[in-house]
Specification:
Blueprint: H1 11-26, H2 29-40, H3 46-72, H4 99-114, H5 136-142, H6 144-148, H7 160-168, H8 172-203, H9 207-217, H10 219-236, H11 240-258
Helix pairs in contact: 2-3, 3-4, 3-9, 3-10, 8-9
């Protein structure tokens, strides 16, 4: 009683809206980029091109962790306070890094990199006539005559719920891939979220050092693995079934190796009331 509650900050709303807008802007790149590669590239080169696309995408988080490591070494009020007046170091638990600086640098970089997209032509060059049968363009053109024969009742716009249940979730391969992707990303996001804090608590590393280690040791092997997977698929000319078996084998091997994390760690800190009694 008698305690005055401090007003809470609503800055998290701006961060939420900013990330939402960023996600909306970045979403078309992957589906449209992969569709463009599938339609306009040679069939045997598509796996390599897609692997390169995802490999470059993995470089973003890597540089993000390195940038976060640099920003964590800077005090949160850098530019507004005299650096000589700061009496604590990044190893101090009271230290707060310049977390906001990464958003400014990342936002400015994204804005500059988006400018070239404004100069792309409205219509892209269509593939050659010889490759039309191998692309979705040729497939759509070949099925155009069949669509004209459909009655007006069948050509009416279908509800999204009907399409989702019949065309998407009814496809067993797509549904299995969707479930697999959800499980993989859930584990990957948890790994990136909690591993820096785990390094801080278990190994006594600073925040900047933890981000640096994550960026240099975890993400580059993932990008390299994606690129090598694309090369292997191109070399052996894997089809859908072969690629599925290859993905299952590599995923199973990855999960088996990940079990080694249970055997890595240090003893817990001595905390009164949690790990030891007060006596």
């Amino acid at each position: 009683a008698g305690c005055e509650k401090e007003p809470s900050s609503y800055m998290w709303i701006y961060i939420l809206l900013g990330n939402m807008l960023r996600g909306i802007g970045e979403t078309p790149i992957t589906p449209l980029g992969i569709s463009y590669l599938d339609d306009f590239a040679k069939e045997e080169n598509v796996p390599v091109y897609v692997a390169c696309l995802h490999t470059i995408a993995m470089m973003g988080p890597m540089f993000g962790f390195l940038l976060g490591s640099l920003c964590a070494k800077l005090y949160v009020d850098i530019g507004f306070v005299d650096p000589g007046s700061i009496t604590i170091t990044p190893q101090d638990s009271r230290w707060v890094g310049a977390w906001w600086l990464g958003f400014l640098i990342g936002g400015a970089t994204s804005f500059l990199s988006a400018i070239p997209f404004c100069f792309l032509p409205k219509s892209l060059k269509r593939p050659e006539e010889a490759n039309k049968d191998k692309t979705s363009h040729g497939l759509l053109e070949n099925t155009g005559a069949a669509k004209n024969k459909l009655s007006s009742e069948k050509t009416k716009p279908r509800k999204w719920s009907v399409m989702l249940k019949g065309k998407l979730l009814g496809n067993r391969m797509y549904f299995a891939l969707l479930c697999c992707s959800l499980l993989q990303f859930s584990g990957f996001i948890g790994f990136l979220t909690y591993k820096p804090k785990y390094l801080e608590q278990q190994y006594g590393q600073s925040t900047s050092r933890s981000n640096f280690l994550i960026g240099m040791t975890s993400l580059p092997p993932v990008g390299l693995g994606i690129f090598l997977g694309g090369l292997i698929m191109k070399k052996y000319k894997m089809g859908i079934i072969g690629a599925t078996k290859f993905s299952f084998a590599m995923s199973f091997l990855s999960y088996a190796i990940s079990l080694l994390h249970f055997f890595v760690g240090c003893d817990n800190y001595t905390v009164a009331g949690m790990t030891v009694s007060y006596e």
